[in-house]
Amino acid sequence: MSSAPLSSTPHDRTPEAGHARSAGRRGHRRTVVVATGLVVLLSACSSGAKDDAKGGSTAAGTERPEISVNLQGRAALAGKPVTVRLAQGELKEVKVTGAKGAPLGGAVSKDGSTWTSHRVAAPGTSYQIHAITKKGGSAQASFATAAATKVNKLELAPGKGTTVGIAQPVSIVFDHPVKDRAAVERSLKITTSNNTVGSWGWMEHYDGRTRVDWRPKEYWRPGTTVRLRAELNGIDSGAAGGWFVRDYDMGFTIGRAQIVKVDLASKTLKLMQDGKQLRSIPVSAGTPGGKKRSWGGTSVLMAKEGTINMNSETVGLGDAYNKMVDYSMRLTWSGMYAHAAPWNAAYFGNANRSSGCIGMSTGNASWLYSQLRPGDPFEIAGPGHKGDPAPGNGYGEWNLSWQEWQTKSALV
């Protein structure tokens, strides 16, 4: 909806040509004549300038610019770029500031008639507009957007300022459904210290929420620094999701190259660091056949959770177990861990007899726990597993080829 022009009304007048005034001194009269055609030019930002009721600012002898703004009033609809239009002449600069004086950047059109913001107006925000023309005139305007009736928030991984393993994706889980995924994805910007190639992919999180991850084409290069700028403020995620009302900025670093290789056939776990084997550990993985099998493919260490209670009822295995477990390293949301399992000592290196996890001695689990960091991949191969975990079950996206992963972007 376009607005009526905000016009400016002159308040200062120059003397009319030919007007004369006289002054007496010691009885003598002196007449001063203002020459016809003489114009006094004042800067629009001089002390002689005044703001009129419609937002224009003028000074004696300068133009009187008229601007219109596409958003008006105190409850304008957010989610649209701000457009400032000049009735006549050319714009030189437009400054739009929002909450706490934060600038809303934009650009003037080639013909100088309009200015359009790069980003959209955010909900629940007051905006001040100051336009300057090439001839020195200026005009002001203001508007405010309606507050969001529903707000969409998100969870970010990894944590800000952390150092993670070479398989750690950037992962965003939204509180509410995201309908306009393309608009959201366009607002997510990844930069790296070495121009790493990667792509966003949308999926259903393990608990059913909407999720989008950024995964590199291949494992990260050690030492890479990564930054996410999520410029979401003002984006409408859809009727069921609501508005985003803030931006997010997060960075992290990739640590050393570590890969955990688990062979279900030989019942061994090997930690590889920078291509060299540090240790080979005998393990017992999930029991082949039925629900107690381990996942295969690639899982990523999500968190080192220490000593936790593991209850089989929470993963659909009835009353098979309920015990405190040390050195627990979570690999999937569905409950696969690597951990200490001293009760299974007879099976380490001999048979896979766990309830789906990768168990080892307490000493080996303690050592592995001290070496690993979140983001380190576990590559699990061999017979008897139950297939690859879904992308949303932990960080299962590494089980997709690069071509398959790219198709999950909303911008393909």
What does this structure look like?
It is a single chain. With 412 residues, the chain is mostly beta strands. Helices cover 5% and strands 37% of the residues. It contains three helices and 28 strands. The strands form seven sheets. The chain has a five-stranded antiparallel β-sheet with strand order 3-4-11-10-7, with no helix packed on it. A five-stranded mixed β-sheet has the order 22-21-20-28-23, with no helix packed on it. Strand 3 (50-51) and strand 4 form a beta hairpin.
Key attributes of the depicted protein:
Immunoglobulin-like, single chain, mainly beta, disordered N terminus, L,D-transpeptidase catalytic domain-like, 3 helices
Looking across the biggest beta sheet, what order are the strands in? 3-4-11-10-7
Average residue pLDDT: 88
User: How big is the Rg?
Assistant: 33 Å
The biggest sheet amounts to: 5 strands, antiparallel
Query: How many helix segments?
Result: 3
Counting structural domains, the number is 3
Per the CATH scheme, the topology name of the largest domain is: L,D-transpeptidase catalytic domain-like
Please report the total strand number as a whole number.
Answer: 28
Rough shape?
elongated
Query: Which band does the percent of strand residues land in?
Result: 35-45%
- Tell me the CATH superfamily of the largest domain: L,D-transpeptidase catalytic domain-like
Terminal CA distance reads 32 Å
CATH architecture of the largest domain: Beta Barrel
